[in-house]
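I am writing to request your help with a piece of structural work I have in hand. A protein sequence and the C-alpha cells that stand for its backbone fold form the material at issue. Please examine both parts with care and let me know of anything in them that strikes you as inconsistent. The record follows directly beneath this note.
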Amino acid sequence: MTGDVMDLLQYTFFQHALLGSLLASIACGIIGTYIVTRRLVFISGGITHASFGGIGLGLFAGISPILSAAVFSVLSAFGVEWLSRRKDMREDSAIAVFWTLGMALGIMFSFLSPGFAPDLSAYLFGNILTINQTDLWMLGILALLLTGFFYLFIRPIVYIAFDREFARSQKIPVEIFEYLLMMFIALTIVACLRMVGIVLAISLLTIPQMIANLFTYSFKKIIWLSIGIGFLGCLGGLFISYHWKVPSGASIIFFSILIYAVCKIGKSCFKKQS
C-alpha cells in the first residue's frame, strides 16, 4: 500500500491532482461556508447547471470552455440576484429560468459545434487527474482572492450571512457584498468543474460544511474544518478512484458522504451514551 502511494507521487498528473485538491478545498471551504449559512444551495445548483451554457458556447466558438463558462456563470449569478430582488418574480423561479436556459444552450451549442466534442463528459462528470497547470493557476489565484477578501471583510460577510437587515442597520453595503459573493460562488463552481463536473460540483461546496457543522456553529471554525474535511475527501476519493478504476469526481463525493455518515452516526451514539 505504501509502495503504491510512493509510486503514484512520482507522477506529475498525480502531483497536480493533490495540489488541485488542496487549492479547491481552500476555495470551496471558504465560499461554501457562506453558501450553507446563507442557504444559497439551490441558487448555487442553478449557477452550476447554467455554466453548461458557457461550456457549449466555448466549444462552438472555439475558445476556452472554462473561460466562457466563467463569464456565463457570473452573468447568470448576477441575473438570478437581480431577478430575485424584483417583486414580480420569486427567487426559485429566477433560478429555474437560468438553470434550464444554461442547460438548453449548452446542449444546442454542443450539437452545433464542428466535429465531436471529446471534452464534454469531462465537464459533466469531471476528472481531477486531467487538470493541468492552467487549472492550478486559476484555482490558486481564486483561493488567494477568497482568502484575502474574507480576511478583510469577515465581519460584514458574517452579518450578511446571518441577518441582512441587521447588516443594513450597520450601514454595510449589503447589495454590493451580495453581488461580489455571488461572483465568487460562480467562479469557484467553474474552477471545480474539471475536478468533479457539473453534476457533482455543488457537493464540494456543501458536504464539508455539513460535516463541520456537526461539531461547531462558529463561522470561522466551519471554514477551517471545511478546508480540512474537503481535502481529506479529495484524498480518499483519489485513492478509491485509483484502486477501483472509477471516475475520480464521483469517488470524491462518495468518500465525502461516507465521512458525513460516519460523523453523524458517531455523534448520535456519543449523545446517547452521555
User: Anything to note?
Assistant: Residues 29 and 223 are 5 Å apart (CA to CA). Residues 2-268 form a domain with the ABC transporter involved in vitamin B12 uptake, BtuC fold (CATH 1.10.3470.10).
